[in-house]
Each structure stands twice: as structure tokens, then as C-alpha cells.
Specification:
- With 329 residues, the chain is an alpha/beta fold.
- It contains 10 helices and 8 strands.
- It has an 8-stranded mixed β-sheet, with helices on both faces.
- The two termini are 32 Å apart.
- The relative contact order is 0.14.
């Protein structure tokens, strides 16, 4: 098989880094590699392919080692266990060296022929180019409908208007992406994080294929995780430097409602003769409001603390077992 661009120098830094998280994709990794090589063969750009194995328990890693042995443009990072897609993407950023970083799935649902189109948009002056699966080949009720609802909600809350934030096929200017710190499950919000530092963002329709091999790692429960992450993103984007506004504002709102409830209890006492102490409905309502607010605030505080913990100690959200074709830093 002809290796597209094999005559180019591999010692020099590549122009494009194509990063693919892998988790139990033994049926797909070799096909995905070949599709990238064939798609990039006509390209005038040098490139590398960075596979991040997120703790696969199948034959994905041995197959990737075999590919890397034949092609020095292929780099492999193997995690000690499954750390999640966000950690895999963070490792992709850390271990890639291209001026432009392209993320895509390793399940063959993204089309490698779209890479050049995304790169061309970056060269027009954009910092982030997001793929839009306009004709998405997934189940409607379990995948497409929740995704549409989530995307509209995210666009409304964050002000970053992208039709398909969940599409993995995206291209970034490396200098922008390397300023973004990823923790938790924030990979889907990378364009939002990039917008905070002034990145120019656009989206383009991309091809999407139905999964042919392997099993999808996503389910409808992912939608609820997105909603929780959205609360964190909104807080970090608007109140990370002035948390007293949100916590103090919440305190004043609670004080207002406690005043109303206090008046209601007094009126019930004097007009209806009902005991102030033996009013279980009022006590239950107040208790639920306080608990819900406390839980949200504790969650936000935990998100802030974990970021301080990681960044202060220069720790990454993953642990590497081995690397292939990657120079020690």
C-alpha cells in the first residue's frame, strides 16, 4: 500500500496532528488508519496520527503497535486504565506537535476525507472549525433528539452558536488549543473554552457514517452529564473571577423567600389559627430549597478546587503506561 507523504521528513514537526481516542475498537483501528492515509495522500501538508488508547481491554493496542512499527508518522499513547474521553483528548494535545490539531473518532463514523476541508478553514483565519453532522446516521430518539436539545440549550446558555457541539471531528489552531485545560468531562465544551480566550469559531457540514463495527460507548445518560457540565461551564465562564455574585445573589434570594415564608406562617397563625411550629409543609419546602442550593454550590466549589489541585501541582488527568514513536520530553 502506498504511504501518502512517506517521502516527507518525519523528523520535522508535522503541520497537522490527527488525534484519535481509542477504547475497544479492534475492528476499526486498522480501517481507520488506512482511511486517513488514503484521504491525506493528495494533501500538500505533512501530518502525524496520534492514537490515544484509553484503557482498551481488547486487541486495539497490539494492532496499533503493528501499525506504528510500519509507519513512523503514527504515535501511540497507552493509558494505564480507562480515564475517559476528556483525558484522552488532553493527552492528544500534550503529545501532538502539529500547528493544527484535528480530533476525530476511531469508529469510522467520521470521514477522513473532511480533514483537508477543516484545515483549509483554519488557514482562512479561523481558530476553531467544528464539524456539523447535518445528515447524522444515528438513532433518532436515543442519540439525535437528545443531541439537538442539548446543542440548542448550550448555544443559548454559552452564546457559542454551534449546531453540533458533540461532533468529534473538529480542527483547532494548536496555539489556541494548548491554552485550554481539560478536566472532568469537558471535551465537548472545548469550543466554548476557546471562545473565552477570543478564538474565532466556525462550523462546516461534514459526512457521517453509521457505525459498522464495535459498540457505541455513548447512551442517553450522557445527556444528563451534559446538563451538569453546562452548569459548570456557565459558572466558570461568567463567575469564576467573581463568585461572590452568584453565591451572594443566591443568599439574597433565599433571604427573600424566607421572608415570604415567614409572613405566610404568621398570617396562617393569626387568620387560620394554625400552629407555626407544627406546619410540616412549610418546613419541608424550606428544607428542599436549602438542600438543592447547597448541593449545586458544593458541586461548583468541587469543580473549582479540582482545577486548582491539578494546575497548582502541574498534574495531568491521566497516567501513561507506554508510548510508541514519541520522543521523551
Amino acid at each position: 500500500m502506498k504511504q501518502g507523504g512517506a517521502s516527507k521528513k518525519t523528523a520535522a514537526k508535522p503541520y497537522i496532528s490527527i488525534v484519535l481516542p481509542v477504547f475497544n475498537e479492534e475492528e476499526n483501528v486498522e480501517r481507520q488508519y488506512r482511511s486517513i492515509v488514503e484521504a491525506m495522500a493528495p494533501s500538500r501538508h505533512s501530518y502525524e496520527i496520534v492514537f490515544i488508547d484509553d484503557g482498551s481491554s481488547d486487541r486495539s493496542v497490539p494492532l496499533l503497535r503493528g501499525i506504528a512499527k510500519k509507519d513512523p508518522r503514527v504515535k501511540i499513547v497507552v493509558f494505564r486504565r480507562n480515564f475517559g474521553q476528556t483525558a484522552a483528548m488532553a493527552a492528544g494535545i500534550d503529545f501532538s506537535s502539529g500547528e493544527i490539531i484535528v480530533f476525530m473518532d476511531s469508529d469510522l463514523q467520521n470521514d477522513a476525507s473532511d480533514i483537508d476541508m477543516l484545515v483549509a478553514k483554519i488557514e482562512e483565519g479561523y481558530d476553531v472549525v467544528s464539524g456539523w453532522r447535518k445528515n447524522r446516521q444515528d438513532r433518532f430518539f436515543s442519540r439525535k433528539l437528545p443531541s439537538r436539545i442539548a446543542n440548542r440549550l448550550i448555544a443559548r446558555v454559552t452564546g457559542v452558536h454551534i449546531h453540533d457541539l458533540g461532533c468529534s471531528l473538529k480542527a483547532y489552531r494548536g496555539e489556541i488549543l494548548r491554552q485550554v485545560n481539560l478536566y472532568g468531562e469537558m471535551h465537548r465544551f472545548i469550543p466554548v473554552h476557546a471562545s473565552w480566550i477570543g478564538a474565532r469559531i466556525t462550523e462546516v457540514p461534514v459526512k457521517h457514517h453509521a457505525r459498522m463495527f464495535g459498540k457505541s460507548k455513548y447512551g442517553i445518560k450522557r445527556t444528563f452529564k451534559v446538563l451538569l457540565d453546562l452548569i459548570t461551564v456557565k459558572f466558570l465562564g461568567k463567575y469564576s473571577t467573581k463568585p461572590i455574585y452568584v453565591f451572594g445573589g443566591t443568599g439574597f434570594i433565599l433571604l427573600f423567600f424566607s421572608g415570604l415564608s415567614g409572613i405566610a406562617v404568621i398570617l396562617m397563625k393569626f387568620l387560620l389559627g394554625q400552629s407555626m411550629i407544627r406546619n410540616p409543609l412549610l418546613l419541608l419546602t424550606v428544607m428542599l430549597i436549602i438542600l438543592s442550593v447547597l448541593f449545586v454550590q458544593i458541586g461548583i466549589l468541587a469543580e473549582i478546587m479540582i482545577r486548582i489541585y491539578h494546575e497548582a501541582q502541574d498534574m495531568s488527568p491521566y497516567r501513561v503506561l507506554e508510548t510508541v514513536n514519541i520522543r521523551k520530553r
